[in-house]
C-alpha cells in the first residue's frame, strides 16, 4: 500500500526534493541581498511578475495555464479528473494551513529587521503591534531609502512570514503538474515548471518577504500533504461515467 503510494507520486516527490535541495542553500545568497540597493525597472518588473504569478493577483492565471497544458498532454479522462480533485483538495489545505501557521508561528518578515536597523521601530515584533495605518506610515518612511519595487510588496503583505504562501502554491504546482509531465515524458514542460518554482522562491527572498527557512518549511509541508493525498481515481471514473450517461440516454 505504502509502496504503491510512493510509486504513483514518485515523480512529484522527486521534483519537490530537487526544489528543496536548490532552495535550502539559498541562505548563502540571502546575505548578499541588499534591500537598500537601487533596483532598475527591468529587474523590478521581472521580480514582480514572477512573484505575482504565484500570488493573489496571478495564481489563477498560472493555474489555468497549467491545467490547459496538462489537458493537452493527457486529454480529458479519468486521470485528468482525478488530478484535478487532488489539486483542489491540496490547494484548499495549503491556503488554509498557511493562514493558520502564520498566526501560530508569528515570525516577523525580514523587512521588519531593516525597519528596526533604521531605527523606525524598536524591534521586528513591534511592527505587528501597530495598527494598519501606522504600519503603512512606517513603510512609507523607509521608502525614501528602499526601491518602490520592494516597498509596494511590503505594503501589500504586512502579515507574518512563516510559511511562504507563494512557495506553497509553487510547490503544489511542481508536484502535481511537474510530476504529471514527468510521468508522460514531457521533460521540457516539467523543467519549465521547476525553473518557474525556483524563480518564485528566490523572488520572495529578493523582495525581503521571506527567509530560506520559510521556503523550506513550505516545501516540506506540501510534500507531506501530497504524499498522504488519496488518488481519487474512483471518483474520477464515477464522474466520467456520469458525464457519458446522457449520451447513452439520447441514443
UniProtKB/TrEMBL annotation:
Organism superkingdom: Bacteria
The protein's Enzyme Commission number: 3.6.1.27
GO molecular function: undecaprenyl-diphosphatase activity
Record-annotated membrane-spanning stretches: 12-33, 45-68, 80-97, 160-182, 189-207, 219-241
Keywords on record: Membrane, Transmembrane, Transmembrane helix
The keyword Transmembrane helix belongs to this UniProt entry's keyword annotation: yes
Catalytic reactions on record: di-trans,octa-cis-undecaprenyl diphosphate + H2O = di-trans,octa-cis-undecaprenyl phosphate + phosphate + H(+)
Classification via SUPFAM superfamilies: Acid phosphatase/Vanadium-dependent haloperoxidase
Gene3D superfamilies reported in the protein's UniProt record: Phosphatidic acid phosphatase type 2/haloperoxidase
Gene Ontology, cellular component aspect: plasma membrane
InterPro entries per the UniProt record, alphabetical: PAP2/HPO, PAP2/HPO_sf
Domain Phosphatidic acid phosphatase type 2/haloperoxidase: 82-230
Broad class of enzyme this protein falls into: hydrolase
Protein's UniProt name: undecaprenyl-diphosphate phosphatase
Annotated organism of origin: Vibrio orientalis CIP 102891 = ATCC 33934
Amino acid at each position: 500500500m505504502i509502496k504503491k503510494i510512493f510509486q504513483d507520486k514518485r515523480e512529484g516527490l522527486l521534483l519537490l526534493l530537487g526544489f528543496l535541495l536548490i532552495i535550502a542553500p539559498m541562505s548563502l545568497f540571502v546575505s548578499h541581498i541588499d534591500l537598500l540597493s537601487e533596483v532598475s525597472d527591468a529587474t523590478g518588473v521581472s521580480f514582480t511578475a514572477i512573484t505575482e504569478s504565484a500570488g493573489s493577483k496571478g495564481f489563477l492565471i498560472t493555474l489555468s495555464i497549467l491545467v490547459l497544458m496538462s489537458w493537452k498532454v493527457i486529454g480529458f479522462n479519468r486521470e485528468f479528473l482525478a488530478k484535478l480533485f487532488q489539486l483542489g483538495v491540496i490547494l484548499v489545505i495549503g491556503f488554509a494551513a498557511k493562514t493558520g501557521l502564520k498566526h501560530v508561528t508569528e515570525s516577523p518578515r525580514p523587512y521588519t529587521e531593516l525597519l528596526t536597523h533604521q531605527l523606525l521601530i524598536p524591534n521586528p515584533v513591534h511592527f505587528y503591534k501597530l495598527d494598519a495605518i501606522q504600519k503603512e506610515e512606517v513603510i512609507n518612511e523607509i521608502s525614501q531609502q528602499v526601491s518602490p519595487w520592494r516597498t509596494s510588496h511590503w505594503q501589500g503583505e504586512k502579515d507574518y512570514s512563516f510559511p511562504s504562501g507563494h512557495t506553497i502554491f509553487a510547490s503544489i504546482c511542481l508536484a502535481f503538474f511537474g510530476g504529471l509531465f514527468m510521468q508522460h515524458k514531457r521533460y521540457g514542460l516539467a523543467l519549465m515548471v521547476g525553473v518557474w518554482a525556483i524563480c518564485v522562491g528566490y523572488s520572495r527572498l529578493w523582495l525581503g518577504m521571506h527567509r530560506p527557512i520559510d521556503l523550506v518549511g513550505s516545501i516540506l509541508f506540501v510534500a507531506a500533504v501530497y504524499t498522504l493525498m488519496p488518488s481519487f481515481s474512483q471518483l474520477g471514473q464515477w464522474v466520467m461515467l456520469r458525464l457519458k450517461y446522457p449520451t447513452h440516454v439520447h441514443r
